[in-house]
Amino acid sequence: MTSAERQAALEAVAAEVSACTRCRLHTGRTKAVPGEGHPDTEVVFVGEGPGFNEDREGRPFVGRAGNLLVKMLGSIGWRRDEVFITNVVKCRPPDNRDPEPDEIAACAPYLHRQLEILDPAVVVTLGRHSLGTFMPGARISGSHGTFRPTDPATGARNALTYALYHPAAALRSTEVERQSFDDVAGIPAALIEARARRAPSEATITPTAEPAVEPTTEQELVSVAIATGAADDTIETLDLDPDDQLPLF
Ligand code: URA
Ligand code: SF4
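Above: inputs. Below: predicted complex with iron/sulfur cluster.
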């Protein structure tokens, strides 16, 4: 798919979400919140569901939790418009209660389609309910800051799932906030690992592909080497210098 085709496909999903009545959450919504972001991104963030501000604006993570998420992205040099941000349920649960399993199941086809369209390298889960969708049975206390291969049944064909605490939990506890910034610092290394895992099949699809950009940092050198099939699996032990940043675009 071209970038324009992905954009159009994402807009088609968003239009369906806005008119959706598949679960009871549609009765209480002001605006549905399909999600937003860059159609060509490699990284998708998945939260739980819209809160008060998101319901009013129709956009994900625009309240206090959203501000903290933007700060966390900034700590690794990324902006919110360079990733895609969505939720497991697209309509606000009343009084910000947890989404029910049947509501998550009713809404799942939309997330599945978004992931199919975006084909991300990394899916970052925000909080328990998102974690439960991507790593069934995993506990947030043991999984935050770690990643594992994403089940292709989620719609993300070839991705790693990286677990984070929900930013709202970080707002309630300075210890969780500190831990969350630590966890976020591990996302670029997960992306490099994900690119390495995706490279072989992509290289066979586009054998004539050249690196589009001149590598400017050591990390880019590594990822460009992988994209051209020049690297071996030493990538597994790559440590990122925390002062270096891995640009998404
Ligand atoms: N919390 C979420 O899980 N999602 C949002 O969009 C906003 C807050
Ligand atoms: Fe439809 Fe999802 Fe909203 Fe339920 S939460 S009404 S399934 S868009």
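The longest strand covers residues 43-47.
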